[in-house]
Amino acid sequence: MEGQKYDNDKLPIFTVLVKQFPDAIKEVVKCSKVGHNKYPNDTDYMNFKRVDISDNPYRYLEAAQRHLFESGGELTIDIETIKYGSAIHLAQAAWNILAHLQIRLENNNL
Questions:
Q1: Distances from the Cα of 83 to the Cαs of 26, 53, 77, 87, in angstroms?
Q2: What is the percent of the chain where pLDDT is above 70?
Q3: Whole-model pTM over 0.85
Q4: What is the three-class DSSP state of 42?
Q5: Could you tell me if 94 and 32 are in contact, meaning their C-beta atoms sit under 8 angstroms apart?
Q6: DSSP-assigned beta bridge partners for residue 77
Q7: What is the three-class DSSP state of 24?
Q8: Cβ distance 87 to 31 under 8 Å?
Q9: Kindly report the CA angle at 41 between 50 and 107, in degrees rounded to 5?
Q10: pLDDT digits over 72-84, tens only?
Q11: Nearest to 67 by CA among 80, 84, 49
Q12: pLDDT tens-digit profile of 84-99?
């Protein structure tokens, strides 16, 4: 008898994160580590959720756009964060978009 598993309608999380975008995801994780190193009080990697965005709910989108602008679409390193580790501007843009999306999803205000 063969085993069965009903997962055809489930999200292919492993496939997307690990098979489709392994290098891009690794760069975003490196960027997160750089941010973690930059802010010593960020003991749990959740500092971005504690930042008050009430004055500017688009703070992370603004940051993403700045990093896109700085990168010019190239794999350039953000020299301002180099002392905390190496972070590519495009990865920082992606991280900021993910931070914005996460906050919006958690607050149910898309």
A1: 19, 26, 12, 10
A2: 99
A3: yes
A4: coil
A5: no
A6: 88
A7: helix
A8: yes
A9: 15
A10: 888 888 777 788 8
A11: 80
A12: 888 999 999 999 999 9
